[in-house]
Amino acid sequence: MATVVVVGVQWGDEGKGKVVDLLTGDAHCVVRFQGGNNAGHTLVVGGRKIILHLTPSGILHSDKVCMIGNGVVVDPGVLWHELDRLKEFGMEVTPDRLVVSAYAHVIMPYHRLLDAAREAKKGASKIGTTGRGIGPCYEDKAARSGIRVHHLLDERVFRERLDRVLEEKNFMFRHYFGQEPLDADAVAEEYLEYGRKLAPFVGDVSARLQEAVESGRNVLFEGAQGTHLDIDHGTYPFVTSSNTVAGSACCGAGIGPTRIDHVLGILKAYTTRVGAGPFPTELTDPTGERIRECGAEFGSTTGRPRRCGWLDLCVVKDSARLNGLTSLAITKLDVLTGLPTLKVAVGYRCDGRDLDGLPQEVDRVERCEPVYEEFPGWEEDIRGVRRLEDLPQNAKNYLRALEDFVGLPLSIISVGPGREETIVLSDPFA
């Protein structure tokens, strides 16, 4: 039995979905523990592309139990749409395969409206949120005025909470944003119907996890976004609204820290970022454009083109500390094929000083200039490689430098988007 937490170690979009899908073969349970449908996992299975935003990636395996923990904020409309889409792909999701925590908070229509209205009002200083209502939902959770999944199952309690919250939200819509207020009856009708549909899936995720662990079953925890988008430890305020680090698995699913056995950090062979915020190794030249096109770097949730740049090992090393990483998995190594020279950041120069890690102040990060080490690239097609020793020597040198700098071993190397296009060096569940 083992429990494994999978987290991104950059600014999200590291390819966690593929790695989770790969590891799910050895897991009994797969658990989402934070974030919402602002995250998207793109999976390629049997040549078919499937994008999931809320449902854990493990749902593609018919013999696995998937769970959405209390740390996730759930848009029930999005979740139900995903379940319908999976049915179209021939994957019937039943309550014995998906459990939604009764304690998870619900994204309401006013959360999405607030998200969009605030971004519009900020103008040029906007953060670049996905507009899905994630932040406002977490705000209400912290303010103790949120609506949780179990509230949808009790009409009286739900209406009382909804009427109380809408009194405040509609005042803001009218008098601050100059928008029409929401109709409480229409909202109640829509969301109580979601409650009736989701009722069979609602349960106690923490208790189910305890049962799985005590039964000696493997559990896989699936994080969303990346370490440097963490609300506390990321490049604030250009961050997401939840804790994305591995420790959040305990709070967001209801499991004790002593139950976690392995923390696997996922990184791309280069770096990407979506939205605003500092990005020291960003490439705004033809090389950056080439990486974007070859890597299909467009948001699975928003479709926005991702900003692309060289691999930043300082960012990865910071993530190793923040997450207590056990090992690393690198994705999209094949995207670098054909580049004559590769660069990796191993330090920064800021205000005349040499730094070996990201400063804590975001304005200083924006002034950082990366210090690079250069490596010769490779021309060989590596998508068919299944053993480390069969990679081009220059690719092996690139990977070895990564391991040496961060001080952690690689356990997985992804050489293409397909499930089978992977080199597994060690089993995180072992």
UniProtKB/TrEMBL annotation:
Binding site for substrate: 300-306
Protein residues bound to GTP: 12-18, 40-42, 306, 332-334, 414-416
Catalytic activity entry: IMP + L-aspartate + GTP = N(6)-(1,2-dicarboxyethyl)-AMP + GDP + phosphate + 2 H(+)
Pfam families in the cross-refs: Adenylsucc_synt (PF00709)
Broad EC category: ligase
UniProt pathway annotation: Purine metabolism; AMP biosynthesis via de novo pathway; AMP from IMP: step 1/2
Cofactor note: Binds 1 Mg(2+) ion per subunit.
One GO CC annotation: cytoplasm
Co-factor(s): Mg(2+)
NCBIfam families associated with the record: PRK01117.1, purA
Protein name as annotated: Adenylosuccinate synthetase
Species: Desulfacinum hydrothermale DSM 13146
